[in-house]
Every structure is written in structure tokens, then in C-alpha cells.
Amino acid sequence: MRPMGSGTFLQLASARAGNVLARFGLCLLLGAAACAEAEVVQPVVQPRPQPQKPPSVMATPARLLRTPTLAQLAAYSCSLGVGDAQERLECITAFGPPPPYSQLNFQFGTTLTVHNPRETPMPIASVRILLKLFPGEKDEAIGSLCLRMCPLTEQGCTGSVAPDGCSSSDGPVVRAEPAIARAIPGLLLGPTAQTIAVELHKSAVAPNGDMTLDLQFDMGSDQLLQHLTPALKQRMKAKSPPELKEFQLPVSTEGGVFVRTGDPASPRIGAWFGPLPGLLPL
Fold first, then answer.
1. How far apart are CA 196 and CA 145, in angstroms?
2. For the chain, which ranges sit under pLDDT 50?
3. C-alpha 55: how far from its chain's center?
4. Which of 33, 74, 116, 246 is deepest in the core (most CB within 10 A)?
5. What is the bridge-based pairing of β-strands 63-66 and 204-205?
């Protein structure tokens, strides 16, 4: 090993002395306590929270599960008046006497398939359904429901939920808000007993798995007939049963599935589906 020259030694000593003096001066400025704390405390870098993966959802177009016959609907429309007394008599002769109101029941259904892209189970918080009759027309009528998924231990759960239980900052959800605001109260009455007992108690989607929700809804007869009757009256002017047999109700279905995030600033994330157009044969 080569011996260290006196010049090199003096340079190292001077550098070390300079570091000590600089550190001593910093301690004087900060104070002894702060200087001692600086010896042991290292800055902690907080990890950024990872964005949560939302679910994905697919849905089937709306289908009628229960409806009066078209003849019953036509006869009911006759009782509301088609024109003068002679026309009403001809209408009743063609389609028969009006049925009891209790027989004018409507149900529709749709099936959702929810996919969980995560490695952990995904509890579903709520589901939004939006049904439009005569979509895009001047007679458009909208029905909407937000359903709360039911914990397995909550036997009395009916799926009812606060109005904001299906809200989130996701773009499609925000864009649907004006249509939701125009929804007619009572057009969709609520989920059927079967839907409440079975479908709404499916609490979580398995990791990287799918969950099927077969949803069925009772519809408000008064509200539905109020929008169907004018269309039926137009078709009854010719009083031709073959023409009535071709009548189909244009609809569209859309909605979303929502998951809690645990973040107060953005408590839910949602996956939207639709709109899915369809024609419901009556």
C-alpha cells in the first residue's frame, strides 16, 4: 500500500472538519432537540392508494312476464271512451265487456350478469333499473328503482334504499341522472317476492367470478294503462283484431350495479349497462 502523503491527509482532514462544522451550524439554527430528532427520523413516503377495479355487467332486454291479453286491454280502453256512444258500443261489441281492474296486472323482468375482476370477493351494494316506454317519443314514460342488496342475516330486507344509494361519479351514471329525475312514481312498484327472497340476498361475487341476478318487477297498472291507452285507441279506430295482434310496446332498459369503496369522497363505483332496446308483444 502506498503511504498517504501529507497533502492528501490534510485534504481529508479539512473536508471532515468542514462537514462537522456545517452540521454543527445547522444544529445551532434548528436547536439541539430538532438536531437530535433529525438523527433518527427518516421521511416516510405514503403509498398511493390503488384505484379499485369496478365490476362489469351485462343484461338481457326487458321481457314481459305477466300481462293482460290484448283483447282485455282493448276492452278496458273501450270503457274509457273511444268516441261517441255509438262508437263505444261498437268497440265493446268487437272486444267484449271490460275486465275487472284486478286482472290488469303487469310484470317485467331482466337478467344481469355481474363479473368481478378482482382477486377478492366483491360485495354488491345496490342495483339501479331504468325502464322507458315509448323511448324517444313524445309519450315517453320512465320508471326507475334503486334496490339495496340484502345481507344474509337481514331477513326483513325488502330492497328499499335511499334515493342516493345508486349514485356515483362514473360518467354513464351521471348522464342518466336527468332521465332518473323524470321517472314517474309508481310506474315500477318494486321487486317481486321471489326477487326479494332469492336474488337480492346474493351478497357478493366470487373472485374472478360471475353472479347472475334474475330480477322481476311489478308494474303500476294505473300508470302503465295511462300511457298504453292512447296508443291502443289509435289502433282501435279500425276495430280490427288482426291489427291489434301486431301491437308491440317499444321499450328500453338500462341500469347499473354499485360497489362500496370505503372512500368518503367517492363512496361508490358503478358499472352501467344499456340502453337495451326491445319490443314487448302484448
1. 14
2. 1, 6, 8-18, 20-24, 26-30, 34, 38, 242
3. 11
4. 74
5. unpaired
